[in-house]
Predict the structure.
Amino acid sequence: MPRVVVFDETGTPDVLHIVDEPVAEPAAGEVRVRIEAIGLNRIEQMMRAGAYPRPIRLPHARIGCEGTGVVDAIGPGVGAVGGVGGVGGVGGLAVGDPVIITAVPDMDVNGTYAEFTVVPARALIRRPAEVDATSAAALWVAYSTAYGALVEKAGTRPGDHILITAASSATGLAAIQVVNQLGGVPLAVTRSAAKKDALLAAGAAAVFVTGRDDVVAATREHTGGAGADVIFDAVMGPGLAELATAARFGGTLLTVGWLDPRPASMPMNAPLTIHRYMSFEHTLDPAVVRRMAAFLGAGLRLGALRPTVDAVFGLDDIVEAHRHLERGNQIGKIVVTV
């Protein structure tokens, strides 16, 4: 029988284990996907560790919100599905079609850490020809988060200076590339000086190292004293209020993650627009998903967007993959092949 990663209690990576489960049949409006590769995300680490912001159905919880594979079976009533491979690339799904899963809000029930999963057809887009399965597994969550926050929420414009924290993460690297595709100026923040060259090579206009550089002062220096138009922050925590002072008068603060689990300090500099961004806000909206797909498809074809894969593990090594995720030393996405 097909393999599925589950956990019966929250804790360290060792709580993850593989079981055999029968293949589920897709109901009306659903599609069964044979998974080829999975991208790991911090939200899954939080879920496994017991820090997830919503209840988890234990025991035997599944896990995983990102994946790519091929259509294995189609339920009744499944219609056309749009494509990331090209603007307006709409057509009916067929068994064997390569797809990307865009949203798994109930990942404790139908998570992607498995050989097969069943999802609503509306949660699928076509996999672009420009990427293989491993790269595709590193694409959607990171790049849709960067696009959704920067474009749909903040309305980023050409010439805008964007300060990006946790810049060596998959989402941070995606944000650097998205800002460049938009004609903006990405300013990267990292905790590790050893990552500076990699971030510059990824397209950052400047790199600031926390603990060594005064991030606020450096941002103002690189923006002619004005400050960043948008701050794209994946850390939060007690340093958020100080970070917010790097924004220009009337700028925008986007919080897209919470790598620092401590309570966040409240920014007091005004006027400042603050958005708490969660990707499911947009990945569950078909109209926004179409715009995301068109933008990412164009970026891939032009070579402006290039998913960064840090390491690749097999499904049997899922515990070690989560240990690698916890260490936090990666540049880009950790991918698990199935």
